[in-house]
Amino acid sequence: MGLHPIRTAERRVADLSRRLALGTIAGLAMAAGLGFLTVAAWLVLSAQNGAVFAAAVIGMAYLGLGLVLAAIAAARRNEPRDDAPKPCHDPQDTFARMAEGFAAGLEAGRAARDGPNGRA
Fold first, then answer.
1. CA 67 to CA 59: how far, in whole Å?
2. What's 82's DSSP letter?
3. SS3 1
4. Distances in whole angstroms, Cα of residue 101 to Cα of each of 32, 87, 88, 95
5. What whole-number distance in Å separates Cα of residue 81 and Cα of residue 74?
6. Chain mean position to CA 41
7. What is the pLDDT of residue 4?
8. How confident is the chain (120 residues) per 10-residue block, as mean pLDDT?
9. Residue 1 has what pLDDT?
10. What's the gap between Cα 113 and its chain centre?
11. CA dihedral of residues 87, 90, 93, 94 (deg, nearest 10)
């Protein structure tokens, strides 16, 4: 006998909360690491070429990273959706669907011509 729906839902919620907690901790750790790397880059660049150069290089690096991430986020995937109708390859089924569509359109046209109260 399979799991009950409530137990399945509880397991899914527990798994989701665990992944969210670990993801949050990982994001915070990466942000801290990025902060330290930024400070290290600032110290090296400002010692060699001055503060203005260091600010320009680090700012450009963050701008480039932001543009790349925005482009990735805006990109659309061409994966078929699960709820999309599956293409049919049966010629008889295709003809039946075309006939149903034609009949529905014909009835809609008659109903529009006749008006809401019957024949106009």
1. 12
2. T
3. coil
4. 60, 16, 15, 10
5. 18
6. 34
7. 83
8. 77 93 95 95 95 95 94 83 64 80 88 73
9. 47
10. 44
11. 60
